[in-house]
Amino acid sequence: MNDTDYMSIALKLAEKGCGKVSPNPMVGAVIVKEGRIIGQGSHLCFGGPHAERNALASLTESPRGATLYVTLEPCCHHGKTPPCTDAIVESGIRRVVIGTRDPNPMVSGKGTGVLITNGIEVTEGILEEECRELNHVFFHYIKTGRPLVVMKYAMTLDGKTATRAGHSRWITGERSRQRVHEDRSRYFAVMCGVGTILADDSLLTCRLPATRNPVRIICDSRLRTPPDSRVVTTCSQARTILATCCPDRKAWLPYEEKGCEILLLPPREGRVDLNALTEHLGQMGIDSVLLEGGGALNWSALDQGIVNRVQAYISPRLFGGATAKTPVGGSGVEFPYQGYSLGKTKITALGQDILIEGELAPCSQES
Known about the structure:
Blueprint: H1 3-14, E1 28-33, E2 36-42, H2 51-57, E3 67-72, H3 84-91, E4 95-100, H4 110-117, E5 121-124, H5 128-134, H6 136-144, E6 148-156, H7 174-186, E7 189-193, H8 194-200, E8 215-219, H9 230-233, E9 240-244, H10 249-256, E10 261-264, E11 267-268, E12 271-272, H11 274-283, E13 288-291, H12 295-303, E14 309-315, E15 341-350, E16 353-361
Parallel strand pairs: 3-4, 4-5, 6-13, 6-14, 7-8, 7-13, 8-9, 9-10
Antiparallel strand pairs: 1-2, 1-3, 11-12, 14-16, 15-16
Protein name: Riboflavin biosynthesis protein RibD
Binding site for NADP(+): 154, 170, 196, 200, 221, 294-300
Domain CMP/dCMP-type deaminase: 1-123
């Protein structure tokens, strides 16, 4: 086995922290001596030991002279845990292979520097793209201070999100719906507009066993969310935030009494300013948002520039209907060249459905 093989193992270990370590990164580590894996570990929960320390704790023999494979540059500062570089130096490990540097200015390049200063050989950039993609949320959040926003929707082959009568359950199949719940567990928060709550009385929780619920964010400029709606009455099960422009604190009381948090934000064209919202969410430590909005909220999110990635689930059905709802409403663009496009696209088959996902590319300015 070579460096790439061992880093692949470390990447699989890192995935064990999915949905559990946020806003920290997912990290995996493998310790190899004379071709034998003698220790391995993952960062398993926020505030818990990092992957390197868990790998060292699992050793079956002395690591002196061994090689450590780790998906992210080891930390060199005191946070919730001591610096991993200290533990590595003390262990007698001879070589460290790193997938990608940590974008955190407190670490970036400094962790590697500590290792080299202490006579440890360092190799960087092994499966770097894969290691960066694993933590695309962390990289975005550290660099911008705002959550990564993933706009997700399901539609028919003719681009409808509901029938002409407004019925939408179910457009996609069971495997697609399971994937949505996996992502609700993966991302820190899920967000929708009040229209979705009024139409579907959505719960917005994760229904997979042994997983956490996302923080639920409802964009509700005038506080129209029914106090007896499921998203309000289940605040004890999942943290719930109502983002509003309504300054009347008396109107807040029915929600606050049931455990909702009210986030008062400035209006933009009569609705919640989404840039102000994402700024506040970032300050609250929320590093990622799965946007499950309707057409109006989706357009506002695109128009205000908060969307980073798109997930489009497409069912092989045709609904028709000139007035049937579509994934993105609003005023839309005037010319085709002004449209939003995706880069780094990926297509996944999910039963009979397909999922197209990619990173939102900047709008073109020319025809």
